[in-house]
Amino acid sequence: MAMKWAGSWVLATVLAVAGLAKAAVVEYHFKVAYMSAAPDCYSKTIIGINGGYPGPTIRATQGDTVKVTFENHVVTEGITMHWHGIRQIGSPWADGTAAISQCPILYGESFTYEFIVDRPGTYFYHGHFGCQRAAGFYGPLIVDLPKDKHEPFTYDGEHMIILNDWWHRSIVGQEQGLESINFAWVGEPQSLLLEGRGRYNCSNVPEYKPAGLSCNQSDERCAPHVWSVERGKTYRLRLASVASLSSLNFKIEGHSMKVVEADGHSIEPFWTDNLDLYSGETYSVLVKADKQGDNFHLGLNVRGRNDEQVPTGLGILNYKDKPVQQPTTPAPKGPAWNDFEASKRQAKTYKALQNNPDPTSHPFDASAPVTRTLVLLTTQNKVEGRIKWSINNLTYAPLQTPLLAGLVYNISGAYDTTPPPDYPAHGYNIFAPPEPPHTNVGSGMYQFNTGDVVDVIIQNAAALNNVSEIHPWHLHGHDFWILGYGEGQFDPAESPKSYDLKSPPTRNNVATFPFGWTAVRVHLDNPGAWPFHCHVEWHFHMGMGVVFTHGIDSVRARGIPNSVLGCGLTKQLFSLPSP
Ligand SMILES: *[C@@H]1O[C@H](CO)[C@@H](O)[C@H](O)[C@H]1NC(C)=O
Ligand SMILES: *[C@@H]1O[C@H](CO)[C@@H](O)[C@H](O)[C@H]1NC(C)=O
Ligand SMILES: *[C@@H]1O[C@H](CO)[C@@H](O)[C@H](O)[C@H]1NC(C)=O
Ligand SMILES: *[C@@H]1O[C@H](CO)[C@@H](O)[C@H](O)[C@H]1NC(C)=O
Ligand SMILES: *[C@@H]1O[C@H](CO)[C@@H](O)[C@H](O)[C@H]1NC(C)=O
Ligand SMILES: [Cu+2]
After folding, report:
1. What is the distance between the alpha carbons of residues 327 and 562, in angstroms, rounded to a whole number?
2. I want to staple 483 with a disulfide (CB 3.0 to 4.6 A). Which of 363, 387, 499, 557 is the partner?
3. Which segments constitute the Plastocyanin-like domain (predicted)?
4. Considering only CA atoms, which residue is closest to atom 7 of ligand 1?
């Protein structure tokens, strides 16, 4: 190999990024395999970690190096793991995106991710190959502040609540349906899960005869999760939505929540009795256990899509001086699923915390000149009879060679050199789907210079069924500032006048609402190849994403480990001795 990976970057970067005197190396060993689970009482095969579901909590302190070794025991499938919300400063190869940052880890192989957790907060990890996140391949990742530092809020105890939507069909069948000419949509989820638990009404499924398959409402694996609290104390609930499709609304019976953190960033706190979570988002809320009563529902409902067939996901908040009991009160319910105005109001409530004491909080600098503006129009189209999502008339198709390796080694033919358009076709009517609905397939990238400040406007439109739905967009490798949301068609002359340039929240995930636009600003300060995509698992699988690249020379100078290579055209980097 011409290039050696400079593994010693770890310590130097820790000291530089976090300004910390010493940092630990926190190691985990994950054995990944198919397992039988019954998260909502219906048994199915999922992808589990160390024999459990959801995956174990990874916990480290700001500045630590996290090393996670994966052993892939998933017969017939490759795997990768993405560290959602961790920017991977200096370690773009460890982002865990198949086709972009690495080759999948094959059956029987091991692979070690190694990265620094540079910011405190609530994060999670999930598979980023095919639709494996929807197979249950995820878990929480929490980064604490060092002992001598304090968050700008206080609490007595904390709990993690990871949220998901759940289907009974296998993801393999679901993917195949989405890819077929006879398109088969996955439909609404059967259940909503809190900490990997929900309860499906087994009377709705026929008797299952095959050995090992069952729907059993007495199965302990689908007993509601219980969060115990001490009366009078304040708790930090760390929430993360790893949903595959649904936008979610979280409610605690009888308690309001003070929202203090979003996507790992402190925000100007606000109170609410129901919290919207779009897929890919994390939050911390403070809740005081000071109500009359002993056991309260935690309730989870669908936002933005018809929720008639999706029962409320339930958990139990138990005041631990009293025994755990299933509350008999009605399941909590937030605003109606189609009350989009309520969702938009809440989205616009988020503001960056003023005078944030955290030096790593990435403060907004309104005076930094914007070097480029992209308007990304998201439409639903067809390619050779198959339904796809398109960005500026290109549906994203991953290539065989990981893009980062293709660029770093400049492998001829490994990547698509045609730049995708910065703007959509002029005069596109977002209220009517295209007719005929043709689009193009592309694997290109938006190439930037490190240091660029880019405004990205995501323009939502009607899908082929004339419905416009919510799409949560997630950026890898960077946080962005949310400048604003608007209705209808983005107007480059008028719309920016409504931007919040005073205290835009810093995040890595943002929703686009039906027939509206969302504007974000990103400072490209972390070299690599980074997807920016709809976090709906099924939509990204149907091509709803783009890739940003910059600073490849500096990635090349530092090197990427050989362990991310081996597939596609990276094979030509290895030569065999003559037999
Ligand atoms: C479960 O479904 C059956 C049949 O549809 C219905 O009779 C029953 O009331 C349901 N049970 C619950 C708890 O919703
Ligand atoms: C359902 O689960 C309970 C608790 O594990 C068990 O006792 C019972 O036998 C199961 N029922 C069936 C039909 O498998
Ligand atoms: C990549 O390779 C091509 C020839 O295949 C060459 O023209 C180009 O300069 C190379 N780029 C870099 C950044 O080395
Ligand atoms: C998108 O590309 C397709 C296929 O080339 C073309 O037929 C269609 O007119 C394009 N649509 C727009 C809005 O440019
Ligand atoms: C979609 O809406 C447009 C404009 O409202 C209308 O012309 C068209 O017939 C509709 N198409 C479908 C499939 O409903
Ligand atoms: Cu989407």
Report:
1. 54
2. 499
3. 32-146, 158-320, 441-550
4. 203
Residue identifier of the C-alpha nearest atom 10 of ligand 5: 466
Q: Report the alpha-carbon distance of residue 261 to residue 280 in Å, rounded.
A: 14
Sign of CA dihedral 7, 8, 11, 15: negative
Q: Which two tokens stand for residue 479?
A: 């946080």
Q: Where are the domains of the chain?
A: 372-575
Q: The domain at 372-575 falls in which architecture? A: Sandwich (2.60)
Distance 490 CA to ligand 5 centre (A): 21
Q: Decide if 277 contacts 299 (C-beta within 8 A).
A: no
Q: Which atom of ligand 4 is nearest to the CA of 379?
A: 13
Q: How do residues 29-54 score in pLDDT, each as one tens digit?
A: 999 999 999 999 999 999 999 999 99
E-assigned strand segments in 101-216: 110-116, 121-127, 138-144, 157-166, 191-194
Task: For ligand 6, an ion, list residues with CB under 5 A.
Answer: 471, 534, 536, 539
8 has a pLDDT exceeding 80: no
- Among all bound ligands, the one having the nearest atom to the CA of 201 is 1
Task: Indicate if ligand 5 lies below 6 Å from the C-beta of 1.
Answer: no
**The pLDDT of residue 303 is above 90:** yes
* Closest ligand 2 atom number to CA of residue 216: 1
Whether the CA torsion 352, 353, 354, 357 is positive or negative: it is negative
Ligand whose nearest atom lies closest to the CA of 203 = 1
Chain position carrying tokens 């104390």 = 233
Closest CA to 527 of 552, 546, 548: 552
CA 324 to chain centre: 33
Mean pLDDT of 112-134: 98
CA-based nearest residue to 435, from 488, 382, 375, 389: 382
The structure's pTM equals: 0.95
Helices (H), 364-422: 403-408
Residue 208: the pLDDT is 57
Query: Which residues sit with their C-beta closer than 6 Å to ligand 1?
Result: 201, 203-204
Pick the residue whose CA is nearest to atom 4 on ligand 3: 412
